[in-house]
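Hello, quick one for you while I still have it in my head. No rush at all, and the record is pasted right below.
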Amino acid sequence: MPERALPHDPYITAVVDALANAGLDPDSYWTDDAETDPRGDGCEMMLDAVLTWNDDHHALNAAALPHGLILLWAHSAEQWQYAPLREHGANEEPQFLPYLGQYADPAAIVPTVRALLAGEPVPEGYAPYWHPADAVKAAVEAWAAEGGDAR
């Protein structure tokens, strides 16, 4: 985690804790307030989080994900995303996880990660909203309204 607190840290911490309690703790994770240039026409600040499982993680299906998995959260996206890792740490194009809304309950993220790591189909439907995220959403919105610098 970063040295300074970011508005989405409490949510990502709850997700990582839920995964760890299920024995699916990521090999690495971090949150960031990255500066991006998505269209080449100017920079914008974006809150994101990255969780990775490498190729020697005990729950990983090596045939389905020979180099590991990356799970992504961004304040600008309505859903979580994932992608297989390539050799040397780069990743394939991320795919949205329609089951996992932006503030899905951390407990609902566990079966999705378990399925992804096992190379199995992910749950269908829509995961419940995590109600403590109301405060996180407000902090993220304040951060965005202040131009990405609500530290």
